[in-house]
Input
Amino acid sequence: MGNFKILGRAMILSFRKSRLAVRLWTVNILFSLFAVTPFFFLIMKHMSHSFSAEHTLQKLDIFWLADFIYRYMNVTPAVLGSALLAAVLYLLLSVFLNGGIIGCLNRQEAKTTLADFFHDCGLYFWRFFRLFLFSIPVYLIFIGIFYPLLKAFLEIFRRRAPTEWPAMIVSNLRFLVLVLLLTVVAMFFDYIKIGLVTGARKKVLKETWLTLKFMRRGFFKAWGLYLLAGLVFVALTFFYLEIVRLLPKNRPLLVLLVFLWQQFYVLCRQWSKVLFFATEIEFTRENMGKTG
Amino acid sequence: MKRTLMSFLLFLLFLALAAEASKDPIDYEIWVRLDPAKKMLQGRETISWTNTSRDAIPDFWFHLYWNAFKNEKSVLMSEARREDPSGTFNGDTRVPDGGWGWIDVEKIRLADGTDLTAAIQFMSPDEPRNRDDQTVMRVKLPKPLLPGETVKLELNFKARVPRTISRSGYYHNGYFIGQWFPKPGVYQQGKGWNCHQYHLNSEFFADFARFRVHITVPNEYVVGAAGKETARKNDSGRKTSTYTFEQERIHDFAWTADPDYIKIERDFIAANEVSPAEYREIAGTLRLPLEAVKLPDVKMILLINPEHRAQVERHFKALRMALKYYGLWYGPYPYAQVTLVDPPFRSRSGGMEYQTIFTAGTQVLPSPQANHPEMVIIHEFGHGYWYGLAASNEFEEAWLDEGINTYSTGKVLAKAYGSGALPLTLFGIPLTRYSGALTYTDKESDRAAAIQVATTDPVVTTTWKFYDSMSYALNVYMRASTCLNTLENLIGKEVMLRVMRAFQSRFRFRHPTSKDFIATANEVSGRDLNWFFDELFFSTKEWDYAIDSVSSHEIKTSRGIFDGQGKKSEITARAARELDEKNKKPVYRSLVRIRRLGEARPGPGVKLKIITAFEDGTKRTNYWDGHGRWTEFSFTGASKIKYAHIDPDNVFLIDRNLSNNSFIVKANMAGTMRWTGKLLFWIQNLLQFAASMS
Output
């Protein structure tokens, strides 16, 4: 079966299990609301009793922004530290939720309950957590060793570029290579997770070895499929950006409309995450028999 | 009629002053040959210098700017390393091996043949002393040069072109050559030579001169330079071409050469650019005769990289706008031509001013919504007025050119283009299409930067004595510009325009100082503005007034013992309550409390305006001299306060916190919700990105 057909089947599967995206969105917004609350009070204190509030409804008022930065510049390290902490906590939460997503996608029933979802989250958490710990050094090797080596190699061409275009192309190539490297690593660990769920295995290292064998035979097809799913996400993002650009924002009701559109985009992002796993499950089902 | 006559007489006086200033004290003739293989310049220079002071001058001082790039012990390099040891921020001072530049004076002699080479000394006039620096050279003359006498010097020099640093140098076959020849300092009567070393955060200062420069380059090079090309000779044997450029009344000479330049010439035809109504309007505002504001035609030459060919029209339009508005507001452009250079790739020479030639800078994919490269073109052209014509000392009072020109750039941009978008790019690809909410004028962005550095250094600070490069840049460019915008708000747009025009006209072809600017502002505005400059230019005081609190309370019947009708009677709590209940029309006592949070204060005769608005739609206007630490205004009436606003017209744009200038009693949550919602969205996406690693 071709990649487009697999992608089509994965889309059907992800739509059939669309509640998963809603659950992920709910967790995402609740966590984000918790993170944004201090800023809400900060912004409210700084602007709600000032005429700046009226200007900022129309557009980002540079005067107000400058005042805000001037006043709170010193708390930047604390904000960045909190953001990092929130990102790490959310990462761990995602490790937990991944079990629920893949578990539910793997279930034959059309509808899965919240109880099924959390059951799968709990069931696979320790396996996925061990895998997550194992993935950290792999990511570090790719980002800290492979990429700098490649970057240094490309830098030779960038530095020697006689004109602007080649320099820009090499710079962008560097970024593209980084993204592609990360997709390879992310895809590899996704397939291990799927193997752990579909094969109902508990040994992470053994599953890693099996996935390596599996990948060896169909790596480029699997990667192509992963990138295809990635393109769906990119297309969604540009669609969101084009629409949001057109929406006027100078009335409270329109601000609400923009907010709803933003949340719809976040929901789509969650759906695209489900889609990635769905394509990988479909690909595994398709090729399991062939690869033995 | 009387006013017109006075204006005309003043105009004649300006012409007379300009004519007096027209005698250039220096005459240069320079022959220079570029050897691209060795990255060398071989030069010969004759200088005719007249002593216009009343002093007998015993010696002659020169700038040898390129020696700043000779090694890491020069003043410029050591300042760069001290501030930024890794060279992260002053990237071009990280010189690669083989990329150092220098200049050697091989021989210097008088016209009669007297050799002065042995008398060459390197000087370090600036504190702290750096004896290793070779950017200032002194030559003792055999006998002092008497007032009115002219000395003729002949110099032979050679220079290694640096791998671009501080906007001079080469990359591949592209060259931008600025500050490249031995250039005399400025002799100041009674003070001696003003000839500073080349610092990290300093630019230049020189006397007006007549230049005739012969530049020899390989045939394939396209050359652009200050002044007008008057001759070109081809040497088929050596496969070189020699270009001759000439220009009077300029104080700097830069040139550029690159085989890939596309050279395009157009004319600025004043009649097509400025309508009769515009002439009449500006003449009326400036109170000048119509003829005095008429603009001349100017030849515009553009040297542009082939990769930027699609941006030719953007470049010419920006240059036309600059010629028009600088011309109308500050006086006609006095030269016959101007050369705009889109500098060679990686020559890092973009955004730099020289007289009659300047560099812009763009990229292959510019953003259509952002005012780039227009801002750079207008700004660097504008330096032709501020630094070029009004030739202030950039070493000592950089705000006089950078600050005034940043202010002027903002005005031209706003007039010709309006607000621009933040030039958002990702890996060189413009994404400004998606940053629509972030549009701003230069006035707004300048103020955003200006408030960050007020307490670091005064605007008027010798350039190398600023705390760091950031303080230098933000103070002399943005803070000075914001202060000038504040001044404009204070004295009015038209008066400010007359101040600027008078300053430019009086000091064209001269070397004005901050004192001259202040004196002009005082005289033309008819006000004593010394306080303004003392508070905002010569000190590190911040300006910040705030509405501290706003309250309205119903006036209740007072309890207690009261004398009346020969006896004492008590109004009890119950009696007071009953009286209040009977009263159908409550009366409120309202209080607005204002604080001065900054150290800067208004000067004599200047009052801060405070508007207090009430729920019934009435408004009260009060004024405060702003001298105390706080004040309050109380009101009694039938309505509660809706809001209070100090300085509602944003006259004092330099205020470090405009948000606290107003206080609305009933909170307006729409803006808060919008930006919290946006922040929430960004956090959601950031978290989702983090989750992709799980």
Notes: Chain A touches chain B through 75 residues (CB under 8 Å).
